[in-house]
Specification:
- The complex is a heterodimer.
- Chain A starts with 5 loop residues before the first strand and ends with a helix.
- Helices cover about 40% and strands about 20% of the residues of chain A.
- Chain A has one domain: 3-Layer(aba) Sandwich (Rossmann fold).
- In chain A, the strands form two sheets. In chain A, strands 2-1-3-4-7 form a five-stranded parallel beta sheet, with helices on both faces. Chain A has a two-stranded parallel sheet with strand order 5-6.
- In chain A, strand 1, helix 1 (about 15-25) and strand 2 (about 30-35) form a beta-alpha-beta unit.
- Chain A has helices spanning about 15-25, 35-45, 65-70, 115-135; strands at about 5-10, 30-35, 50-55, 80-85, 95-100, 105, 110.
- Chain B is about 45% helix and about 25% strand.
- In chain B, strands 2-1-5-4-3 form a five-stranded antiparallel beta sheet, sandwiched between helices.
- Chain B is an alpha+beta fold.
- Chain B has three domains: about 40-135, PAS domain (Beta-Lactamase, 2-Layer Sandwich); about 145-210; about 215-370, Heat Shock Protein 90 (2-Layer Sandwich).
- In chain B, a hairpin with a 3-residue loop joins strand 11 (about 350-360) and strand 12.
- The longest helix of chain B is centred in the middle third of the chain and has 44 residues, at about 140-180.
- The chains are: A alpha/beta, B alpha+beta.
């Protein structure tokens, strides 16, 4: 039987957490949630999910940017695909680097709110496939 | 350089509204170069190598006092030291024109920003004998520039907030649809709550934008503050219960009627209660949270109401910023307008807001208004 992919959503907005959790659960994923960056990072270390959905601009003590930096500098966790979500884009001068360009702050995908859920689902599936390849061949 | 003030007066007397070139018996040659320099709509002074002012035009004398014979840094900035970015010194060094922006203090105490040009005056051997310092007051331009930058930032912040609310509406609708599809009424209710919460936030932000963007005429009349407070608290009861926050209202019975604008006061109170509830929501260190609204007569002249929460609290640095427009200490949940609008309205009523806060413990916002 095919293993269910685990996704962790980290967002300080409870509404978004709930709707994304509902959406992804209904699409066959195992979903866990965290309301701030520190809890998110702890959960990621404990669960080692297949993919992370991360709100970039959480301004809790440990923001999405901090989570991203911590993950990308952790040898064991840096290959987990991260999909960044934010209401802030280029207009605020936030530069989202693609994977590999920057060892600290880099997300694999970036979605601006309001999120197109079908497109997100499509990208999650693609990222999960690539994630499996990356896990098996980390130097690729 | 002879004194030309008499010539100037003469010229003004003779002009009589007709073009000066057509004035009988008057020629441009009658106008000394000092008069021309005095007419220039800018500051102009000439300095020697020791930075001593040899000549100052009328505008300099008017706005900085009599400067001739004194060091320019003393006249323009009240400083004993030569300015670190002094363009005049640079022109003495390399015989070139230099430009810089300087902050100065006018003799009436006002601060001004100037754009300064320094132009070397060579002697017959091409050595720089003196330097002309010509400057224009750009304070208004700078202020406008700052406002435009601020406007750009504000729009970006608002756009972020609107996207979050759209996400909320979008997500809430999705949850309702899924609930209806499955006949799961609990899910429908949850989705509907998300939609209602975001509609409430859009309405709140729209009201705050209106209050912050224009000066509103205050329409004061005698009201019973106790009634207003209880009305507003009632509106938040459901929301507080959903957020697991105890919302209490402790007002002194029989508060005297006071003269204020009830719509404005409702907004102030709503913003302060909402601020307190959000501070509680952000706090993960305590098991239970509460927001308490109190109102009483402060003294013979003042009426007071306060909103106390046991949320995350703030340090002094944060307290200094909370009343700034579009400042939010709440990440994606804050528009940065609520406290700014509350403070604006209270000041328009001739009152003040006092803040007591301690990180990790909570905050109290106290509104003090005079009894009219």
């Amino acid at each position: 039987m095919e293993k269910t992919a685990k996704i962790i959503i980290v967002d300080d907005n409870r509404d978004l957490l709930f709707t994304m959790e509902t959406f992804l659960t209904r699409n066959g994923f195992e979903v866990l949630t965290a309301e701030d960056g520190q809890k998110g990072l702890d959960l990621i270390k404990e669960v080692r999910p297949d993919l992370i959905l991360l709100d970039i601009m959480m301004e809790t003590t440990f923001s999405g940017l901090d989570v991203c930096k911590a993950l990308r500098s952790d040898h064991d966790l840096k290959t987990i695909p991260i999909i960044g979500i934010s209401g802030i884009g280029d207009e605020m001068g936030i530069q989202i680097d693609k994977w590999g360009d920057d060892e600290y702050f880099s997300v694999d995908e970036f979605f601006e709110k309001p999120v197109d859920r079908e497109k997100l689902l499509e990208r999650i599936k693609i990222r999960l496939e690539k994630g499996v390849i990356r896990k098996e061949h980390p130097n690729l | 350089m002879g004194d030309s003030s008499d010539q100037t007066k003469q010229m003004r007397r003779s002009s009589g509204g007709r073009p000066e070139s057509q004035q009988a018996g008057w020629s441009l040659r009658d106008l000394g170069y000092r008069d021309i320099i005095d007419l220039l709509p800018c500051y102009l002074s000439i300095q020697d190598r020791s930075m001593k002012i040899l000549f100052a035009n009328k505008n300099v004398r008017k706005d900085f006092g009599e400067g001739v014979g004194r060091a320019c840094h003393m006249v323009y900035k009240g400083s004993n030291e030569i300015c670190s970015t002094c363009p005049v010194r640079e022109s003495f060094k390399d015989s070139q024109v230099h430009i810089s922006e300087e902050n100065v203090r006018l003799s009436d105490g006002e601060l001004a920003q100037l754009i300064v040009y320094s132009v070397p005056i060579p002697d017959m051997w091409q050595n720089v004998e003196a330097v002309i310092e010509m400057s224009t007051n750009i304070t208004k331009v700078k202020k406008l520039q700052k406002e435009l930058t601020f406007l750009g930032q504000s729009i970006a912040v608002l756009s972020h907030d609107m996207k979050n609310m759209l996400e909320g509406l979008n997500g809430g609708s999705y949850v309702i649809e899924e609930g209806l599809k499955d006949g799961d009424m609990a899910l429908v209710t949850k989705g509907w709550d998300i939609v209602k919460r975001n509609i409430g936030e859009i309405s709140n932000i729209a009201q705050n934008i209106l209050y912050s963007s224009k000066k509103r005429d205050i329409e004061c009349h005698k009201v019973f503050p106790d009634e207003i407070i209880r009305d507003v608290v009632r509106l938040f009861r459901e929301k507080a219960a959903a957020m697991n926050i105890r919302l209490e209202c402790l007002t002194t019975p029989a508060l005297p009627p006071v003269s204020l604008d009830p719509a404005c006061m409702r907004r102030v109170l709503s913003n302060l209660i909402w601020n307190g509830m959000e501070a509680c929501e952000q706090d993960t260190s305590k098991e239970s949270h509460s927001v308490t609204v109190r109102a009483c007569v402060h003294d013979r002249f003042c009426f007071m109401f306060e909103v106390e929460d046991n949320g995350i609290g703030m340090d002094e640095e944060k307290i200094d910023k909370i009343f700034e427009e579009f400042y939010s200490g709440k990440g994606s949940d804050g528009t940065g307008l609520g406290l700014f609008v509350a403070d604006k309205i209270v000041r328009e009523h001739g009152g003040r807001i006092e803040v007591l806060s301690s990180p990790g413990k909570g905050s109290t916002f106290r509104v003090i208004l005079s009894i009219k």
